[in-house]
Write a structure and sequence with these properties.
With 271 residues, the chain is of the alpha/beta class. It contains eleven helices and twelve strands. The chain has helices at residues 20-30, 50-63, 103-112, 121-124, 127-130, 133-139, 155-170, 190-205, 209-218, 226-238, 253-256, and strands spanning 6-7, 42-45, 69-75, 84-86, 91-94, 97-100, 117-118, 144-150, 177-181, 186-188, 244-251, 262-270. The longest helix has 16 residues, at 155-170.
Length: 271
């Protein structure tokens, strides 16, 4: 064993509390009321600061029976690293403990889909996976995961990644969750955002990855994680998904009161 790659939190104290007690209290408040947990194949979860989207993320996690292995995909907001970046070893430090990378699953994915590049740089300052980890650790203490940051807009690459994930997960011999971290439309009025987001949500509910890609592109919907969501839907369908549900929808305006310039948040479960 070489030295372990430990990724330190980039946004603790900004997007969520750095203090473990305060963080756990926040996470638990967002996870209530508890729902009957379902065994999902995939989900879409927002990644803004907890004050804005924590209640939507929590509603999704409250619905999920989280398995130990997860594949967690996010958009690459920083522009650092390779457009399809995986971390295949090491661990991510959080105020609630350390989340280990599932090296075996990561290596299987790299083998199955060589377009992926093992690149920790893309992950170092990226917030969109980091903000999910406190929820995942709170719900599943034995949680381990494969982080993937997606900077490509090519449909073939996103679909190929989804197919590879499905193949690797079905060969795994245990259940895994495929998670897409995404916010919805950005920085338009509340009214416009709700209309645009509804169009994208309808495609996700229809389990239609190419339809989602088309509507986001043609309607100019600034959903940052449509790439991860296309890959997740592709994987979930191959793994036998038959339905998706919208658990909760909100905009930042619901919290801030500012309806002129909002970000949309959708929490969705695919099973």
């Amino acid at each position: 064993m070489g030295t372990i790659t430990l990724r330190h939190p980039a946004v603790a104290g900004q997007f969520y509390p750095r203090n473990p007690k305060a963080l756990l209290a926040d996470v638990q408040s967002y996870l209530s009321p508890a729902a009957e947990p379902v065994r999902a194949l995939g989900c879409v979860v927002p990644h803004a600061g907890y004050v804005y989207s924590g209640h939507v993320a929590g509603a999704v996690y409250a619905h999920l029976d989280i398995p130990e292995p997860c594949i967690v995909m996010c958009p690459n907001h920083t522009g650092l690293g390779h457009p399809l970046s995986i971390m295949s070893h090491g661990a991510w430090e959080t105020p609630l403990g350390v989340a280990p990378v599932d090296s075996e699953l990561a290596r299987a994915l790299l083998e199955r889909f060589p377009v992926l590049i093992d690149d920790a740089d893309a992950h170092r300052k990226e917030h969109a996976i980091e903000v999910q980890l406190p929820f995942l650790l709170a719900k599943q203490p034995n949680f381990r995961f494969v982080p993937i940051a997606i900077g490509t807009r090519q449909y073939e690459a996103l679909e190929g990644l989804g197919r590879a994930i499905a193949d690797v997960v079905s060969a795994l011999g245990e259940r895994a969750l495929v998670l897409a971290s995404s916010d919805m439309n950005h920085y338009e009025s509340d009214a416009i955002t709700r209309v645009k987001d509804q169009k994208a949500i309808e495609k996700i509910l229809a389990l239609d990855p190419s339809g989602l890609y088309e509507v986001v592109t043609s309607e100019n919907i600034s959903m940052c994680g449509y790439g991860p969501t296309v890959a997740m839907l592709t994987a979930a369908k191959r793994l036998g998904a038959t339905k998706a549900e919208l658990v909760k929808y909100a905009t930042s305006g619901d919290v801030s009161g500012d309806r002129d310039m909002v970000v949309g948040y959708a929490g969705m479960v695919v099973r």
